[in-house]
Amino acid sequence: MTSNFPLVIAVDGPAASGKGTIAKALARHYGLPFMDTGKLYRACGLAVRLAGHDPYDADAAADAARRLDPALLDDPDLMSSLNSDYASIVSSHPAVRAALFETQRAFAAQPGGAVLDGRDIGTVIAPDAPAKLFVTAAPHVRAARRHAELAGKGGSQTLEDVLADIHARDARDSGRSAAPLVQAADAALLDTSDLGIAAAVAAAIDLVEKAISARRR
Ligand SMILES: Nc1ncnc2c1ncn2[C@@H]1O[C@H](COP(=O)(O)OP(=O)(O)OP(=O)(O)O)[C@@H](O)[C@H]1O
Ligand SMILES: Nc1ccn([C@@H]2O[C@H](COP(=O)(O)O)[C@@H](O)[C@H]2O)c(=O)n1
């Protein structure tokens, strides 16, 4: 179904829940631009690491966020476990979030709409988005998927290590005071624990269609 309003789709959820896979598929399906907002925080974490700063140093992290080098968004180390940790630590600083806010907000405000995935899209970046999904899956399922992904890229982390990383990141993302990971009151919950990618994407399209219909009424 096409919408007669800008179709902004907010996709949030915990680490490795499959929200990026779903958000990209939604962007393809609806012909919309897509932003993986986690990459901004990952690039900030990487900049802090490369400069040898402590990720808990809010001033250094905010400075890195304000001068973010776009080349870092394509760095091969962006998605490593170590960098995931840095990203989740720097993202807890309110000044870092403030520095990255406008880029995300402007992307969401494009005339034809957009799809963004992250932790606070439906709550902070695009609170008026007509379609919001909160994608989740059981921690052991998320860990198994991420472990397979990392192993496919030559990684040597054990499944237990990946699960511990995911638990640590979830706790930090949900427990911080600045824009914590939380399901927006008007977001549809999509648990993909028992769904393969094709089924999860089909379920997501179904939920977006329902949201479009509801907005038209
Ligand atoms: N429904 C699914 N069934 C099986 N594998 C899946 C499913 N959804 C995603 N995956 C796989 O799980 C891994 C994590 O998915 P994805 O990168 O989309 O998660 P994410 O929530 O965006 O992660 P992150 O928070 O780290 O950015 C990928 O390897 C992806 O191919
Ligand atoms: N909107 C967002 C997106 C991400 N984060 C933080 O960045 C980390 C990495 O994000 P991924 O989506 O690539 O996993 C994540 O753990 C969050 O700490 C965020 O705070 N807000």
From TrEMBL:
<dbReference type="InterPro" id="IPR003136">
    <property type="entry name" value="Cytidylate_kin"/>
</dbReference>
<keyword id="KW-0067">ATP-binding</keyword>
<keyword id="KW-0547">Nucleotide-binding</keyword>
<comment type="similarity">
    <text>Belongs to the cytidylate kinase family. Type 1 subfamily.</text>
</comment>
<keyword id="KW-0963">Cytoplasm</keyword>
<dbReference type="InterPro" id="IPR027417">
    <property type="entry name" value="P-loop_NTPase"/>
</dbReference>
<dbReference type="GO" id="GO:0005737">
    <property type="term" value="C:cytoplasm"/>
</dbReference>
<dbReference type="Pfam" id="PF02224">
    <property type="entry name" value="Cytidylate_kin"/>
</dbReference>
<feature type="binding site">
    <location>
        <begin position="13"/>
        <end position="21"/>
    </location>
    <ligand>
        <name>ATP</name>
    </ligand>
</feature>
<dbReference type="GO" id="GO:0036431">
    <property type="term" value="F:dCMP kinase activity"/>
</dbReference>
<keyword id="KW-0808">Transferase</keyword>
<dbReference type="InterPro" id="IPR011994">
    <property type="entry name" value="Cytidylate_kinase_dom"/>
</dbReference>
<dbReference type="GO" id="GO:0006220">
    <property type="term" value="P:pyrimidine nucleotide metabolic process"/>
</dbReference>
<feature type="domain" description="Cytidylate kinase">
    <location>
        <begin position="9"/>
        <end position="209"/>
    </location>
</feature>
<dbReference type="GO" id="GO:0036430">
    <property type="term" value="F:CMP kinase activity"/>
</dbReference>
<protein>
    <recommendedName>
        <fullName>Cytidylate kinase</fullName>
        <ecNumber>2.7.4.25</ecNumber>
    </recommendedName>
</protein>
<keyword id="KW-0418">Kinase</keyword>
<dbReference type="GO" id="GO:0005524">
    <property type="term" value="F:ATP binding"/>
</dbReference>
